[in-house]
Specification:
Strand content: 25-35%
Shape: elongated
Largest sheet: 3 strands, antiparallel
Helix content: 25-40%
Number of domains: 1
Order of helices and strands: EEHHE
Distance between the termini: 8 Å
Number of strands: 3
Number of helices: 2
């Protein structure tokens, strides 16, 4: 049986950061969560750029939103979400 882990990432090279957001047993739910997070991020203004005040405020909103990402992080490269499958052992 597979589980689907949703990840967020930001940065590049030595400044690259990746974190786990959540996991699902259903691949379609993982896909939907990625789309939901990316849409919320864009709606809150957490997009690439160098307006650090705007990015900080958007990041705070992403971390505090009930469907947001409590570990949200961002830099000038933006934040990206994806998911990966892995086998669940001892289910």
């Amino acid at each position: 049986m597979n589980i689907y882990i949703v990840f967020g990432d930001t940065g590049e090279y030595s400044d690259y950061r990746q974190w786990i957001v959540c996991a699902y047993q259903d691949e379609e739910k993982a896909k939907a969560r990625v789309v939901e997070l990316e849409t919320l991020m864009k709606n809150l203004g957490a997009v690439t750029g160098s307006d650090w005040d705007k990015l900080w405020k958007a990041g705070k909103a992403m971390r505090e939103h009930e469907r947001g990402d409590v570990n949200f992080d961002i830099d000038y490269t933006g934040t990206h979400y994806c998911y990966e499958a892995t086998e669940l052992k001892d289910a």
